[in-house]
Backbone:
């Protein structure tokens, strides 16, 4: 299964 | 008072083309240093980061920081009214609820004024740290657009693998598979035709073709594109906008469980 990650899994909401 | 003037309205038209595939609305943050925009697509998978420096404009004035929320579809309608050779001036009063666009033809024989209502948008800014990427690939932007288009025919995802020998783009799906390898160019006459790879460590990541194809809408802005990659972090695709600034796209990878 291929999962599309989201940006908030890498970057913090400023 | 905010005022920004560009002799070439075509640049602003191209910037808009480069972002409107991913975003329906966005906030333009104007300050003394220039115009910035940072926004994620609806799915929060990709992010557009636009930076237009004040010194790149033909005239620029921003007395107070100003955030202008704009519907990009409406802005596109207005920018379509500008001739390719027109000069564009954007203006807004402090705390205004409208932004004005003035288009002037050469010799100012025709002057057109448009006003667009601004919107209050909820902004979710991401803090993106300075990152030392394992691989940085510089290549012709048209070549990158072509590869993204070609590989999209094979599958929804494409793998980008970078070693010091070169960069490989691959995709696979129901009809078969595709592999495109680009070697670093030994010597080229024109700098913009070069493929240059700076590699600390080899990297292989998988991304959704749909987003990469949206990023390539920025191709008319720059002859070269830069791809920055590290294991397990989003890809950065950057197009320089002449002396004016840059547009960067961030894309979260796909992982296989």
Residues:
């Amino acid at each position: 299964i291929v999962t599309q990650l989201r940006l908030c899994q890498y970057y913090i909401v400023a | 008072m905010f005022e920004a003037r560009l002799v070439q309205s075509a640049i602003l038209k191209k910037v808009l083309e480069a972002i409107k595939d991913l975003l329906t609305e966005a906030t333009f943050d104007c300050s003394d240093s220039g115009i910035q925009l940072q926004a994620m697509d609806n799915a929060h998978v990709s992010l557009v980061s636009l930076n237009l420096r004040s010194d790149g404009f033909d005239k620029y004035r921003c007395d107070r920081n100003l955030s202008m929320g704009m519907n990009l579809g409406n802005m596109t309608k207005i920018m379509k009214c500008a001739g390719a050779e027109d000069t564009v001036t954007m203006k807004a009063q402090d705390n205004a609820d409208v932004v004005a666009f003035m288009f002037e033809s050469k010799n100012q024989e025709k002057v057109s004024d448009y006003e667009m209502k601004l919107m209050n948008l909820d902004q979710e800014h991401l803090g993106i740290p300075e990152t030392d990427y394992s691989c940085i690939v510089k290549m012709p932007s048209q070549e990158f657009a072509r590869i993204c288009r070609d590989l999209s025919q094979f599958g929804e995802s494409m793998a980008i693998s970078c070693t010091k020998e070169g960069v490989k783009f691959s995709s696979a799906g129901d009809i078969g598979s595709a592999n495109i390898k680009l070697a670093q160019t030994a010597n080229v006459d024109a700098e913009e035709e070069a493929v240059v790879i700076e590699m600390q460590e080899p990297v292989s990541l998988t991304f959704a073709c749909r987003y990469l194809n949206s990023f390539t809408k920025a191709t008319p802005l720059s002859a070269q594109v830069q791809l920055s990659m590290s294991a397990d972090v989003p890809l950065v695709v950057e197009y320089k906008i002449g002396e004016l600034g840059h547009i960067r796209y961030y894309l979260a990878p796909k992982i296989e469980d």
